[in-house]
Amino acid sequence: MRFNEDAELDTSQVEDLRGSGGGIGGRVALGGGGLGLVGLLLFVLLNQFGGGGGAGTGAPPGLSLDRLSPGQQADNSQLQAKCKTGADANRDQDCALVATINSIQGYWSDYFARSGRTYRQAPTNFFTGGVNTGGCGGATSDVGPFYCPADSEVYIDLSFFKDLRSRFKAQGGPFVEAYVLAHEYGHHVQNLLGTSGRVRPGETGPTSGSVRLELQADCYAGVWAHHATRTPTASGKPLIAEITQDDVNRALDAAARIGDDYIQKNLGSGRVNESKFSHGSSTQRQKWFTTGIQSGDPARCNTFDTHDLG
Length: 310
What we know:
Subcellular location: Membrane
Keywords: Membrane, Transmembrane, Transmembrane helix
Membrane topology: Single-pass membrane protein
Transmembrane segments: 24-46
Organism: Streptoalloteichus tenebrarius (strain ATCC 17920 / DSM 40477 / JCM 4838 / CBS 697.72 / NBRC 16177 / NCIMB 11028 / NRRL B-12390 / A12253. 1 / ISP 5477)
Structural class: alpha/beta
């Protein structure tokens, strides 16, 4: 993936909490699609196979299980200094993520406007080790990337991308990181549209609402990717200049390695238990991302209106 070197970046869409301190307020309470790309999978594995747990998933959306300690304060000064244009995004990971977030939100802002709705921007919080959210309690990096529906914000410890390569054996790359973020913003879109409310927190199984929600977020990620090179942002120019077939292949590789079946087999007991599925199988995740990127149509992401999830 390559960025348009002349396009301007907007760092205000990121809250940089790294190195800001602040206590970690216990467990994170997320429901109705609030958990991130692999957070619930790791939670299920840790509890099913004896590793403890870092996330509570049985609470209603937005209900905090813990009293928060004083919040961390964002300091975007370094991002503002180094992340000004797409040229910076082509040489720096932080800036690439800022550019990706700008592009994702630019697409959904335009889509909502064309649909007669208003898109509310959601910041992405960069943190290290752990974080206190505004409405979902405290979380550690073990939860993985996640979206908190109570405060409508995305949270990610960027070390997750290294973990994705080392622990999950994914190929990685800038477009894989973009896929992860676009998936989380897919949850934000679901929250704005009220789709998240269709899912009972903690529900699992191959056709459960949780699986449908996650597959739809994968599809929404693909929809953004379809339009990314034609989506202008604040400067009037698309931030994404090129997405190659190799980029897409890497994203599909990542999707396969964060499927429920792959994780259970390779990071869990070695046995696949479909009753514990919460995000979808590897094949399903690849199918729905592909549906989005090929069609470019959010209406095709109808995971709640089909019997065939793939």
